[in-house]
Specification:
The complex is a heterotrimer.
Chain A: H1 4-17, H2 22-39, H3 43-47, H4 50-60, E1 75-86, E2 89-100, E3 104-108, H5 115-123, E4 130-135, E5 139-142, H6 154-164, H7 169-182, H8 198-210, E6 216-220, H9 228-243, E7 247-251, E8 263-266
Parallel strand pairs in A: 3-7, 3-8, 5-6, 6-7
Antiparallel strand pairs in A: 1-2, 1-4
Chain B: H1 8-24, E1 28-29, H2 30-42, H3 47-59, E2 63-68, E3 76-81, H4 83-107
Antiparallel strand pairs in B: 1-3, 2-3
Chain C: H1 18-32, H2 34-50, H3 55-90, H4 95-124, H5 130-154, H6 158-174, H7 188-199, H8 206-228
Classes of the chains: A alpha/beta, B mainly alpha, C mainly alpha.
């Protein structure tokens, strides 16, 4: 069973994912903690799973309303009628999505629904069989796995990805360190990427996608494997990003992402195989 | 005698009026409210139901919250009735009693005494 | 007026081109694979030491070792680049810029290795043409970089690529170099140029060796270019 400390950290992340403001979050955590201390019982007994309790609290706080899409905002990414098939297996059919500046688009659906494929198509890493993708601005892409040089350190990644966006080495390192710190990761002297844990590699992927502030962020399951505090700060980072006018498309099968997304694109599993 | 835990869907309906009623006696914090509900016979009210209810009432300005330093432990949030809360207690208590009376009228002819559990283990 | 304290002078560093940074990181990543570096140096050296008694054999063995080791390392570097380079392309860097930077870095490392082995030969052996050996090692290193890069751009699995390069090296070792079929092997030129350097123009042809090397490099470049235009698969 989860320890109370882990449970509370997970609750913080879940509240954050549901768009609960920092102050309300801190209050809920302290109050819950003091209750657990008083009863001297396991948090799970009283509150259930962190996710379920976070949903309750978010509802009580009125945090479940989806933010409105600013329709006058600039379109930064536009995909029309995208089809992708692997051999005879249709993965995406007639998928269209418009991404505007200052919005978060959630890409949801079960495993195998084509979330990663769509993000690859949006990023331009993969060509669709049909349809077109227009990008009006710079793009930062963080895949679900890979995407790093296992034999380079974090700072070397920062310099490489910074250079791709025209940043100087010191500027890129400073930006990368600042972003890493915001994800509760002290990257100095962390060693080469191949030796990092899965969650930390995920942080490195996200940071390298964000360096140089591209117009659109495309993040594939970005907080998978991250520790709870990292995941909570990740959502803070995304909120801040979107507030400052950045756009983001984030794939996830966590329903928590829904409450903060301006747009939700749900992909269905198992399109008929074109037999 | 051990009190029986109130079924969750019923608790949802009665929890807020009961909490308001307890707060008439003065301000207190969440855990203490839970203890008093149990003492009153409502059974063990899980924190997972208690705090969202308090939060909802705080949002509706029926109660007001105040942070105090706990003795050694983390801080405590004390809840007190607002003027609006004080007005609502009476109304809600009245509404609930009328409702309970109505429901009672429907159910009373069909009520049976619950058979005591024998405790025999069936394999 | 007082002079500004040294700590307050912010030096604004000019950004370096992505090509230069990518080339640097390619080399850093390569050097960080300690075992790879050790094999890169020890494999040709072992071939050389094992045949140290005869000048001709030892030079030919050494260049054989260089081509095998360098092509394998080039394959691994190309394979490794598949992780980072697509993301750098998303960030707006043309694929050709990245490939050029990576291949340039590899070629520089391969030529440095060739130079080091050339120095060993020069001090250790009495060869007919010191310049000929230098040309042989340099050209062979470049052919190996092109071949490793081409194989790396075609084959995704590390085992497959290593086996294909092993096949080329193995055939090179067993096929009679005088046979016509031997000219179809990618490293035919390195043996021809070695023979030219050691035994003189009567035995090996300088121009045939250079033409063969040029053709192989061109074919490998074309393969790499075509493979980079292929749409991605999952």
């Amino acid at each position: 069973m989860m320890t109370n400390t882990t449970w509370l950290a997970a609750l913080d992340a879940e509240l954050s994912a549901r768009g609960v403001a920092t102050g309300d979050r801190a209050a809920a955590i302290v109050e819950t903690e003091s209750f657990i201390t008083d009863t001297a019982e396991n948090a799970f007994e009283h509150f259930g799973t962190p996710a379920a309790y976070a949903t309750e609290l978010a509802a009580a706080l009125g945090c479940n309303q989806r933010p409105e899409v600013p329709l006058d905002a600039r379109v930064v990414l536009d995909a029309r009628q995208v089809d992708v098939a692997y051999r005879r297996n249709e993965v995406l059919r007639d998928v269209s999505v418009t991404v505007r500046a200052g919005t978060l688009t959630a890409l949801i659906g079960p495993n195998g629904a084509g979330k990663s494929t769509l993000l690859r198509v949006l990023a331009g890493v993969q060509r669709p069989d049909q349809g077109r993708v227009e990008r009006h601005g710079s793009v930062g892409y963080s895949p679900q796995s890979g995407g790093l040089d296992d034999h380079l350190e974090a700072e070397q990644h920062f310099r490489l990805f910074g250079a791709a966006r025209g940043l100087s080495g010191s500027q890129a390192e400073a930006d990368g360190r600042r972003l890493a710190e915001q994800l509760v990761w002290k990257c100095e002297g962390a060693g080469i990427a191949g030796d990092l844990s899965g969650g930390t590699q995920q942080k490195l992927r996200v940071v390298t996608a964000m360096i140089g502030e591209p117009d659109v962020l495309l993040l594939d399951e970005p907080y998978q494997g991250m520790d709870a505090s990292g995941a909570a700060r990740f959502w803070d980072l995304v909120s801040d990003w979107v507030e400052r006018g950045g756009a983001a498309v984030i794939s996830s099968h966590d329903p928590g992402v829904l409450s903060r997304a301006h747009e939700v694109l749900e992909l269905e599993a198992n399109l008929r195989s074109a037999a | 005698m051990k009190s029986v835990d109130t079924p969750k869907p019923w608790l949802r309906g009665v929890l807020e009026p009961c909490l308001l009623a307890l707060l008439v006696e003065g301000e207190t914090y969440g855990y203490e409210l839970g203890v008093r509900l149990e003492a009153a016979g409502l059974g063990k009210v899980p924190g997972g139901s208690l705090y969202p209810a308090l939060l909802r009432m705080e949002k509706q300005a029926l109660v007001r919250a105040d942070w105090r330093a706990g003795d050694g432990g983390p801080g405590r949030k004390y809840y007190a009735l607002t003027d609006a809360g004080r007005r609502v207690v009476g109304e809600q208590a009245h509404e609930w009693l009328v409702f309970a009376e109505t429901v009672g009228g429907v159910l009373r002819p069909h009520a049976t005494t619950p058979t005591a559990s024998t405790g025999g283990a069936s394999s | 007026m007082t002079a500004a304290p040294a700590s307050a002078t912010a030096v604004t560093e000019a950004p370096r081109s992505i090509a230069a940074v990518h080339a640097e990181m390619t080399l850093r990543s390569l050097v960080r694979r300690r075992l790879t570096v050790v094999i890169l140096v020890l494999l040709p050296l072992a071939f050389y030491l094992a045949t140290n008694d005869a000048v001709g054999r030892s030079v030919r063995s050494l260049v054989f070792g260089i081509t095998w080791a360098v092509s394998t390392v080039a394959f691994f570097v190309t394979s490794n680049a598949r992780d980072v380079e697509p993301r750098l392309q998303v960030a707006g860097v043309p694929a050709s810029t990245l490939t050029r930077a990576r291949v340039t870095a590899l070629a520089a490392a391969a030529l440095a290795l060739a130079l080091a082995f050339w120095l060993i030969v020069v001090f250790d052996q009495d060869v007919r043409s010191v310049g000929g050996v230098a040309l042989d090692f340099g050209v062979s290193a470049l052919v190996a970089v092109s071949l490793g890069t081409a194989v790396g751009s075609l084959l995704r699995k590390e085992l497959e690529g290593t086996l294909v390069l092993f096949l080329f090296a193995g055939l090179q070792a067993v096929v009679n170099p005088a046979d016509r079929i031997a000219t179809l092997l990618p490293f035919w030129s390195s043996r021809e140029l070695a023979t030219y350097a050691v035994d003189g123009p009567s035995q090996g042809s300088l121009s045939n060796g250079l033409i063969h090397a040029t053709v192989i490099i061109a074919v490998c470049a074309a393969i790499s270019w075509l493979a980079s235009r292929r749409p991605a698969t999952p």
